[in-house]
Amino acid sequence: MGKNSIEVIINKKVYQLSGSESEEYLQKLARYIDRKMQELSQTAGYDKMSLEYQNLMLSLNLADEYFKCREELEQMDKEATERERQLFETKHEMIDATIQCETLQKMVSEYKEEIIKLQKELLKLEQRATDE
Fold first, then answer.
1. What are the φ and ψ backbone dihedral angles of 7, each rounded to 5 degrees?
2. pLDDT for 37-86, tens place per residue?
3. Is residue 4 classed as helix, strand or coil in its secondary structure?
4. How many C-beta neighbours within 10 Å does residue 102 have?
5. Nearest of 54, 53, 24 to residue 39 by alpha carbon
6. Rounded CA separation 87/95 (Å)
7. How far apart are CA 131 and CA 114, in angstroms?
8. Which distant-in-sequence residues (6+ apart) come within 8 Å of 8 by Cβ?
9. What's the number of CA atoms in the CB half-sphere (13 Å) around residue 78?
10. What are the residues facing 8 on neighbouring strands?
11. 94 phi and psi angles, rounded to 5 deg
């Protein structure tokens, strides 16, 4: 992708931005920084701070957001890992239950066959008893 160059407005000043990202993305970044600067300008005493201190405040606010987002992402990753572990365990429990169910069904089938054999034998014995 080629290099994009656009004009953006940040804190009521026009700047030339260049980057390999799309123009839309660069505008989005500029709007975000502009909004953050506007938010900070609402802080009591902000306009009396030196430009260096204002920039420091902006940097600290951005770093704060970054670390909070990163922490949230790490928490979401942990939760996703835990859900995956639980899903894995549940799948194995289902497999075990399926195997146990199939085993029990086989035993029921074998018992039914045994019952049928025993009933046939009982009928034969009753038939002999009545014949004698």
1. -95, 135
2. 999 999 999 989 999 999 999 999 999 999 999 999 999 999 999 999 99
3. strand
4. 10
5. 54
6. 12
7. 25
8. 14, 15, 17, 26, 27, 30, 31
9. 6
10. 15
11. -65, -40
Cα–Cα distance for residue pair 88/83, rounded to 1 Å: 8
Bridge partners (DSSP) of residue 5 are: 18
Please give the Cα distance from 2 to 23 (Å, whole number).
11
d(CA 1, CA 22): 9
Dihedral over alpha carbons 27, 29, 35, 36 (to 10 degrees): -160
Task: Tell how many helices (H) and how many strands (E) occur in the chain.
Answer: 2, 2
Q: Return the C-alpha torsion angle 7, 10, 13, 18, nearest 10.
A: -30
Q: What is the pTM of this model?
A: 0.64
Asked if 5 contacts 18 with a C-beta cutoff of 8 angstroms, the reply is yes
Cβ(6)–Cβ(26) below 8 Å: yes
Q: Which amino acid is at 8?
A: V
- The angle subtended at Cα 68 by Cα 63 and Cα 74, nearest 5°, is 125
